[in-house]
């Protein structure tokens, strides 16, 4: 099971919450746990938690496995978050549950059209050969999604190298609107990008369904590096002319109250 929590946050002066505060929020989550448990979850890393601050000061947190057991109740009940000298108030809350990884595969089959829009809602970067890649190349996007799928959904592992090569040949970026920036993390300013890309896939039916499933999965896994520390959050719009966002869109209307929850 993967559960996605969306919490709208506010500062006392209604100033925007910086995206890099997601790292501080991750540290705050760990501080709510006993030291040994926090260390174990931090070691597990992005296999169990990814999170970022997106538009509208919405904090999106995706949990699975032990992280869901440890952090789920905290996120369901929290109303205020104290970050040293700063206090954040949770003004709205919504959680979206995906019961089984198979649902991504089923939704992938239901998508019509071959185009998709991917919005990088948080600063995003890839790393290759020890260097940061600040453009979302098709091969890096595919490799990242497949690696995260295999981490989070090991029962449905996708490790076929021929399949990856066929996907690389068939998926293309056809347009983009991107900007570069820096994501401050400890003593480092990581070069990254945000914005959106438009993809077109020309694939055999089975691979098209798999590609669609990976896109449905992306808002629950993030893409690229440091997804547990606040980077790589995405929103995805599937199907040419569909006019609807399939998953993980912070533009969804948030429902008020700590008990609000929507299941899929």
Write the layout of secondary structure elements.
Blueprint lengths: L1 E9 L10 H11 L3 H10 L4 E6 L3 E7 H13 L2 E4 L2 E13 L3 H9 L4 E10 L1 E3 L2 E3 L4 H15 L8 H10 E15 L2 E14 L3 H17 L12 E5 L6 E3 L14 E2 L1
Parallel strand pairs: 5-13
Antiparallel strand pairs: 1-3, 1-5, 2-3, 4-5, 6-10, 6-11, 7-8, 9-10, 11-12
Helix pairs in contact: 4-7, 5-7
Model description:
This protein is an alpha+beta fold and 264 residues long. The chain folds into 2 domains: 2-99 and 251-263, Alpha-Beta Plaits, CATH 3.30.70; 102-247, Alpha-Beta Plaits, CATH 3.30.70.1900. It has helices at 21-31, 35-44, 65-77, 102-110, 138-152, 161-170, 205-221, and strands at residues 2-10, 49-54, 58-64, 80-83, 86-98, 115-124, 126-128, 131-133, 171-185, 188-201, 234-238, 245-247, 262-263. The longest helix is centred in the last third of the chain and has 17 residues, at 205-221.
């Amino acid at each position: 099971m993967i559960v996605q929590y969306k919490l709208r946050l506010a500062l006392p002066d209604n100033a925007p919450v910086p995206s890099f505060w997601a790292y501080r929020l991750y540290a705050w989550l760990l501080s709510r746990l006993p030291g040994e448990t926090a260390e174990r979850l931090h070691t597990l890393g992005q296999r169990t938690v990814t999170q970022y601050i997106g538009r509208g000061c919405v904090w999106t947190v995706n949990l699975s496995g032990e992280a869901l057991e440890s952090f789920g109740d905290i996120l369901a009940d929290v109303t205020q978050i104290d970050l040293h000298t700063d206090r954040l108030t949770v003004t709205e809350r919504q959680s979206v549950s995906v019961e089984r990884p198979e649902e991504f595969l089923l939704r992938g089959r239901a998508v019509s059209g071959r185009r998709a829009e991917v919005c990088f809602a948080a600063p995003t970067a890839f790393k290759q050969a020890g260097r940061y890649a600040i453009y979302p190349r098709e091969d890096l996007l595919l490799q990242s999604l497949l690696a995260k799928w295999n981490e989070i959904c090991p029962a449905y592992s996708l490790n076929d190298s021929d399949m990856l090569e066929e996907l690389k040949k068939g998926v293309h970026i056809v347009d983009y609107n991107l900007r570069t920036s820096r994501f401050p993390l400890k003593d480092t300013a990581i070069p990254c990008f945000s914005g959106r890309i438009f993809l077109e896939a020309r694939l055999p039916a089975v691979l098209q369904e798999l590609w669609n499933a990976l896109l449905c999965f992306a808002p629950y896994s993030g893409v690229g590096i440091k997804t547990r520390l606040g980077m790589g959050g995405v929103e995805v719009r599937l199907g040419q002319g569909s006019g609807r966002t399939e998953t993980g869109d912070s533009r969804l209307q948030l429902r008020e109250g700590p008990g609000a929850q929507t299941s899929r």
